Amino acid sequence: MRTHGPRSLLRDTSALALGSVVSGLLAYVFFALVTRALGPVPAAPVSVLWAWWSFAGAALTFPLQHWITRSVTVHEGEWAVRRALGGVILVVVIVGVVAGAGSWWARDLLFHRSDAAFPALVVAVALGSGAMGIVRGLLAARRRFPALGAALVAENALRCVAALALMVAGVDDPVAYGLSLVAGYLAIGFWPSTYRIADTGNDVGAESPLAFVTGASVGQLLGQVVLTGGPVLLAAAGGAPAEVTALFAGLALFRAPYTLALGLVSQLTERLTVLVVRGRREALRRFRIGVVLATLGAAVVGAAAGYWAGPPLMELIFGEGVRLPGGLTLLIAVGTVFALANLVLTVTALARGRTGALVRAWVVAAVPGALVFWLSPMSALDRATWTFTVVEAAAFCWLVAEDVRSGAGDRDRSGLLGAQEDR
Question: pLDDT tens for residues 175-207?
Fold first, then answer.
């Protein structure tokens, strides 16, 4: 197993952090360009496509990336990925076709258009998300983290360049801007080495890649719905448009650390997988305790920051009048801390190969959230905000419990790199 010194670790972490920050900023720049070029009403179908892009990233890009990284680490080579990739690509194609068919059926409701342009773009986004997950996974598995950071930036930079070119040319066709979103996936062409997958490694303890990817996809998609679905829930409950906008803004503001962490956890998958396959249960236990303590401490700090700084920051960033009470920004800040911890625990579950734990966590966590939302006498805005925080906290508790339960079986399941205890 390759090792890297402190300088390499710092370089890789810095590259991923910078890539995540710049990529996140460019994503919002792209959307701002679209709305400015088209106006809020004509840009609506592109907004829907942009929302689908975020869900496709959670359901396809993230699971494929971390499956490849884990598989290469477990099997000491890329042979297992090469063998399973055909079936995985078929699943991505099926997902794209089903999503495209569904969006065609609901095209009037979703896009307010009767043509097939945006349903076709839905298919393209699914295929592009899958391709991007494969490229990122191979870059991460090969420890090419600066290249991975560049890939994060390149995807959204291409979108911005395409949208800006359309804007300068005076194009006002929403389909063209939808194509500019899909153009971001052309970034996979910058790393042609990922098209060649080595025939090296072993098949000891091989597991079903489709089961792994499916479980990870469903779990991550459910988590993404919880993270971003608050405004939709509020709108469905009869919340005022201004409240929906304010909740969207509050969630977007406090989600910034989560967006940054999405890139940084690329390093974590391999490191935790090595601990799992080597049977280093004590190191994993210490990591879990560290995550729990850090989460509780960050929740306290986040509560204070959310209460005092949240409302004025919202108005500063999103404009006058876009504001939530301090008590609600406190809840959003705490919920986002748990969301960040859940991301780390998700990677831990993936390293253990326990993707079913992710699905169970979100399904179980939805129960107290539903009780709060449907039975509480609070206002719709309060209920939607409390539901977000309660579900994130409940999922955190369940994922920690799952990690404790699964820890004892690590050594028996792996044995792939010569299981051994910490020495």
Answer: 999 999 999 999 999 999 999 998 887 766 556
Contact 71, 205 (CB under 8 A): no
Angle formed by the axes of helices 326-352 and 355-375, to 10°?
Answer: 160
How open is the CA angle 14-19-24, to the nearest 5 degrees?
130
Longest dimension (CA), the chain: 66
d(CA 388, CA 366): 10
Q: Per residue in 346-382, pLDDT tens?
A: 999 999 989 999 999 999 999 999 999 999 999 999 9
Give burial (CB, 10 Å; 0-12/13-18/19+) of 364.
Answer: middle
Dihedral over Cα of 331, 337, 343, 347: its sign: negative
286: CB partners within 8 A, 6+ apart: none
Q: Pick from 379, 120, 189, 378: which is nearest to 111 by CA?
A: 120
Spatial contact of 298 and 337, defined as CB atoms under 8 Å apart: yes
This prediction has a pTM of: 0.85
Q: Where are the domains of the chain?
A: 11-203, 244-413
What would the 3-class secondary structure string for 150-181 be?
HHHHHHHHHHHHHHHHHHHCCCCCHHHHHHHH
Q: Where are the alpha helices (DSSP H) in 237-379?
A: 241-254, 256-277, 281-318, 326-352, 355-375
The count of other CB atoms within 10 Å of the CB of residue 65 is 26
